Amino acid sequence: MILGQIGFLLLVSSLIFSIYLIYLIYFNYKSVSDIISIKIYTFTFLQLITILFSFFFLIFSFVNSDFSLVSVYQNSHTTKPLFYKISGTWGNHEGSLLLWLLVLSLFSFFFLIQSRNDLKKYRLLTILFQNLIIIGFLVFIIKTSNPFLSLYPVPLEGLGLNPILQDPALAIHPPILYLGYVGSSIVFSSALAAMIEKYVNKIWASSIKIWIMISWIFLTIGIMLGSFWAYYELGWGGFWFWDPVENVSLMPWLTLTALLHSIIILEKRETFHSWTLILAIISFTLSMNGTFLVRSGILNSIHTFANDPARGLYILIFLSILAFFSLIIFYLFQPEKKETTRFFLFSRETSILINNWFMIFFLVVVLIGTIYPLILEILNNSKISVGPPFFNILIIPFLIPFLIFMSIGPRMNWINTENKSIIKKKLLHLLVIIIIFSPMFFYFDKKNILSLSIFILGIFLLLSLLNELKEFFIKSKIRNISKIISHLGFAILIISISLNNIFSIEIDTNLKVGDSYKFKKYELVFQNISGKVEKNYNSVIGKFILKDIKNDIIYLNPEIRIYENPPMITSEASIKNNFFYDNYITMSNIQGGEYYNIRFQKKFMMLWIWISALVMAFGGLLRVFKK
Amino acid sequence: MFGKKVNSRILFICLLLFSLILTTYIIFKALEENVVYFKSPSEVKNISELEIKKKIRIGGMVKNNSIKSYSDYISFTITDFKNEINVTYSGSIPNLFSEGKGVVAEGILRDNNYFIASKILAKHDENYMPPNDNNLNNNK
After folding, report:
1. Residue A381 has what pLDDT?
2. Which single residue of A374, A544, B63, B132 could bond B77 by disulfide (Cβ 3.0 to 4.6 Å)?
3. Is residue A412 in some structural domain?
4. Contact (CB<8Å) A369/B35
């Protein structure tokens, strides 16, 4: 009880510090001195500490099951394991916003101490914009989503955390994703600051690149963890479903990826100023947009547990103000056109530009597919949904040219006349690879043509990268190793997805205990069921045997879990995997009858899909630590 | 007529415009083909021309005592307390699917009374109600 009140007071004092910081920044900005006053450091630190402690107090309240707090009462339970009591802190709306705020102030503080070599006025303005965002979130939390709201009389027991959120991957998924989302706030603030200070140049590009990278790394891992969780916990049995909530996290990832590339041109060739700035602004706007769409409950998705229109409205207004404000700054302070640097058609910058065009195209497709249903519902009240085919039709075919450009582009030089011969050589390689793999087209079904083409181009990309890797290690040519590794991760991802598409098997059937089901070379036997009582749930465990033609046997034990707090039934998938494929099974009971609905899938290369995302992030990480 | 630089710029702008128009066209074409409309059983009753190949979603309540399970499919009835529609379905069934609870089924209409579902949507919220239900409850 008392902890909660202190936590709330800390939040209020943090708000006061933030407002005072703006006052300090204003005077420091006007002063002639070249250094940032020590007071700004102190108060930024205090701001961080107060939010940090307020967050700790919330965690303590969750660990102690202090049900005098509404958020603890609604999302925790005394019988819950300690780990999930802690992760329950950010498993709900109020707590997750406090976490978002914590990350925001953490990054703000790190930016301040890490940017010592940059211009004073630019740093001050960045911190100023950062504080405006922090104040926006503080007011939001205090007014509409106070995690320390108390309850009287104090209930004896909490309602419990939604069981599907009681999962290790999901315990760390929100913090990591937020680090990615919020990381882009620094990019946003500093882009605005750099614009006003006419600081959009090589030096700015190379100093902000690291922040773009950090944000991108966390977003990559965050998305991967979310996808991994949906795979085994929701029983979706796949890695991507074009669910609106997945899409909103993919959108800032696409713009950050584009930004990661365009900032290099700004750094090396001093062009694309405006474009880079626009990408920086869009990235953060989309991150905010993601929070808005998920938190407001507008999206019809699995994340919409509780919704409150007032919250959505607040974020929407806040978001609009930010977007409007940054557009005005962009309009007023647009970098003036320098004498046009000569642009070569066959050059690295062209290939990066092409990358950006593709990213923006993918972004537009995902954006329209995600928000079109919302717009249509407002316009004429008809309820529609846009399914996976929409995204597949618009994205997969365009991966073909994208992969070709991705294999050739990075091999080109900045300003060079030899580029034409490099392109010719590469296209020749491609031709050879296509000829080698062409028998596959006759062997496989027609419906796999697209997947096969993507697979072949994935191999082309992979080989081209391995070649670069060889040059790096053997001939010790100076090449950007972190770029090679990240691209390698992407190549593995593409190859895994295409193989997954071609080879995966999926069956749905209804079985009684003792039944068996034959398909292709396999036989699935439903042997028996047994019950088990666990600490916070009861479960029904099915025993299945999968036999293949060689009589190799695999045991699979999917579960149905019945939770009491809150009352809910979930399916636990049983996954037995090896290096190349996962055997994946879920079961659910049909209306208490003797039939069980069984879904069995053999999914190829699943492990590699998760690994590839980690490889991509690892490449970025190398870059961060090299600095 | 124009200098070389102007010419190439005009070409560039034309190309850009062309690709923009093409992209917009492709996106909206794909959208038109892949949009799935959401209907209630009463709305389904009033459809005069059936589009056999077009997927739709039907939302309502699963009628009590209507679920029947067989080895390769199940059948049930979706109701909005005014009209009903019979559904057959084979595929994976979410845990929350049960009689007296809300359901959203996606599939193809055979006629105004018979719906072949290809997907039943899992809503991972025990309090989930299909979107139209609030109105219905008020009407009752």
Report:
1. 76
2. B63
3. yes
4. no
3 state SS for A152-194: CCCCCCCCCCCHHHCCHHHHHHHHHHHHHHHHHHHHHHHHHHH
In this prediction the pTM is: 0.91
Structural domain contains residue A372: no
Closest CA relative to residue B139, chosen from B85, B81, B57, B99: B81
Instruction: Tell me what the mean pLDDT of segment B69-88 comes to.
Output: 89
What pLDDT score was predicted for residue A475?
A: 74
Which residue among B23, B57, B125 places its CB closest to the CB of A361?
B23
Q: What count of other Cβ atoms lies within 10 Å of the Cβ of residue A555?
A: 12
List of chain A residues with pLDDT < 70: 1, 296-309, 337-344, 416-417, 476-479, 627
pLDDT at residue A340, as a whole number = 58
The minimum CA-CA distance between B8 and chain A, rounded to whole Å, is 12
Mutation for testing the A interface, residue in B73, B87, B92, B127 having most A CBs under 10 Å:
B92
Same domain, A3 and A128: yes
Same domain, yes or no: A525 and A449: no
Q: Is B125 on the interface with A (CB under 8 A)?
A: yes
The answer to whether residue B125 scores a pLDDT higher than 90 is no
Whether B129 has a pLDDT exceeding 90, the answer reads no
Res B69: pLDDT: 86
Rg (CA), chain A: 27
* pLDDT at residue A53, rounded to an integer: 96
DSSP B109: E
CB atoms under 10 Å from CB of A168, counted, come to 13
Q: Are strands A537-547 and A522-533 parallel, antiparallel or unpaired?
A: antiparallel
A251 lies in the same domain as A139: no
Domain end: A503, A526, A544, which one? Answer: A503
A-B C-beta contacts closer than 8 Å: 105
- CA pseudo-torsion sign B43, B45, B49, B50: positive
Structure tokens at B34: 């892949």
In the structure, how many helices (H) and strands (E) does chain A have?
A: 18, 11
User: Tokens at residue A361, please?
Assistant: 């195209």
Give the pLDDT confidence score for residue A417 in this predicted structure.
67
Residues in chain A within 8 Å Cβ distance of B95: 560, 569-571, 588-589
- The DSSP 8-state label assigned to residue A338 in this structure reads P
Query: Which pLDDT does position A25 carry in this prediction?
Result: 94
Distance of alpha carbon B95 from alpha carbon B100, whole angstroms: 14
Nearest to A404 by CA among A423, A419, A417, A432: A423
Tell me if the domain spanning B37-139 has CATH number 3.30.360.10. Answer: no
- Rounded Cα–Cα distance for residues A44 and A24 (Å): 11
Backbone angles phi, psi at A69, to 5 degrees: -95, 130
Q: Are A356 and A258 in contact (CB under 8 A)?
A: yes
| A385 and B CB contact within 8 Å | yes
Tally of domains in chain A: 4
Domain boundaries, position A266: 167-337
Residue in A588, A389, A594 with CA at minimum distance from that of residue A512: A594
Q: How far apart are CA A37 and CA A403, in angstroms?
A: 50
DSSP designation for A32: S
Cβ partners under 8 Å of residue A58, min gap 6: A7, A71, A89, A95, A98, A147, A148
A571 and A484 in a common domain = no
